Amino acid sequence: MKKYFKIGIGKLKVVWNKFGIFLIPAIIVWLSPTWLSIFIPALKPFALTWLALVVSPAVPSYLAVPLLAVILKLLWIGLLILIRFLKDQLMKLGFGAEMFTLYTVEEIEIILVKGRKMKVKKDTKTAKFKKELKDERKKLIQDNWETTIEEVEKE
C-alpha cells in the first residue's frame, strides 16, 4: 500500500512541477458546477450531469484539468504582456506631455528631424554590419568546412 501511495505522490509532484499554481484554479473551474450547486439550488440538475461527465471516460479529467491549467497559464502570460504594453504606452504619453511643457513646437520639430536622421544613419550602419557578418559567415563555412570547433575558438 505504501508503495502505491509513494507512486501517487511522485506523480502528483511531477504534475505540480509541470503546471504549478495554475492547477488550483483549473481544478476549481473544472469542478465549479458541483460546488456552486450547494449555494445555488437551481444548478443541482446541471451539477449532477456535469459530475457524471467529469467522472465518465468520455471526458477524462486527467487530461482536461492540465489542459485547462495550460490555458489559464497562457491567459496569465497574455495579461502580463498586455499590462507591460499599457505601461509602456502610458510612459510614452507622459514623455510627450513632458516634452510639450519643456519645449516649444519648433524645438520639438527640430528634435524629431534630427531623430529621424539619426535613425536612418543607424539603420544603414546596422544593415551594413549585418551584411558583413553574413558574408563573413558564408566565407568561414566555405573555406573551413572541415575545421573543428576548437580550431575556430582558438582564432
Describe the structure in your own words.
The protein is an all-alpha fold and 155 residues long. It has two domains: 2-102, no CATH class; 104-145. The protein is built from seven helices and no strands. It has helices spanning 2-19, 23-30, 32-39, 44-55, 61-102, 105-143, 149-154. The chain starts with a helix and ends with a helix. The model has no long low-confidence stretch (mean pLDDT 85).
Give the key terms.
single chain; 155 residues; mainly alpha; flat
Measured distance between first and last alpha carbons:
62 Å
Sheet-strand content, in percent, reads under 5%
Give me the count of strands.
0
Round the Cα radius of gyration to an integer and report it.
Answer: 30 Å
* Class from secondary-structure proportions: mainly alpha
Approximate helicity band: over 70%
The helix/strand order is HHHHHHH
Low-confidence regions: none
Shape: flat
Q: List the total number of helices.
A: 7
Mean pLDDT: 85
Largest sheet: none
Number of domains: 2
Task: Produce the secondary structure layout.
Elements: H1 2-19, H2 23-30, H3 32-39, H4 44-55, H5 61-102, H6 105-143, H7 149-154
In a few lines, what is going on in this structure?
The chain is an all-alpha fold. The chain is built from 7 helices and no strands.
